[in-house]
Amino acid sequence: MENKLVSIITPSYNSEKFITNSIDSVIKQTFTSWELLIIDGGSNDNTINIVKSYLNNHQNIKLISNLHDQGPAHARSIGLKKGIGDYFAFIDPDDTWLEDKLSKQHNFMKNNSYYFSNTSYKRLSKDGQISKSKIPIHSSNTYTQYLGRRGIANSTVMIHKKCIVEDIFNSISSYHGEDTLWWLIIMREGYNLSLIHISEPTRPY
Fold first, then answer.
1. Of 195, 169, 40, 38, the residue nearest 109 (C-alpha)
2. pLDDT of 32-54, one tens digit each?
3. Concatenated DSSP letters for 125-174?
4. Which residues are CB-contacts of 198 (< 8 A; sequence separation ≥ 6)?
5. DSSP 3-state assignment of 87?
6. Pairing label, strands 61-65, 193-202
7. Which pLDDT tens digit goes with each residue over 149-201?
8. Does the predicted TM-score (pTM) go above 0.85?
9. 141, 145, 150, 151 alpha-carbon torsion, rounded to 10°
């Protein structure tokens, strides 16, 4: 079966401390049909130089300048518009993925005709130690269920391009919580959330 392209979106602003680990975890994926869109909101540290150091050797990594940055959701919305993949995944600049994360999640969705999925995840300490226990999350979510829930981590989500509707772009504001609103919009369209039981380490904020 053909592997469809996955567009990976990373919002970035002054992310020099962790972004190398994040990018490297994408490059090391066993699934190779991907593009990484790094949407930078005018970083004034070394973030842009770090990202540029990858561009010559990795044609599927792209740096997009977002000087009118309105926060991570705004950056992700630009990635949704610029990405050309059949699927979209998200990874924050201070998070990392296990090497088979994309492969397992992509196959899980494609083989079961799922359009919206997330994974379990674990905390990654500042000294690189992965916690032994997973963060408790629900095994499935519908629109009605998620109205009273929270806890879908951005870096665990993969969606099919069919889930990208105009209401997602209309929901961008200066308030926090757009990600929760996005997931509700997608579920409202009838795409229930399916959980694949793999673990992804994530660095706490």
1. 195
2. 999 999 999 999 999 999 999 99
3. -TTSPBPSSPPP--SEE-HHHHTT-----GGG-EEEGGG--HHHHHT--S
4. 98, 100, 101, 104, 105, 119, 120
5. strand
6. unpaired
7. 667 889 999 999 999 999 888 877 655 557 788 989 999 999 988 888 765 65
8. yes
9. -20
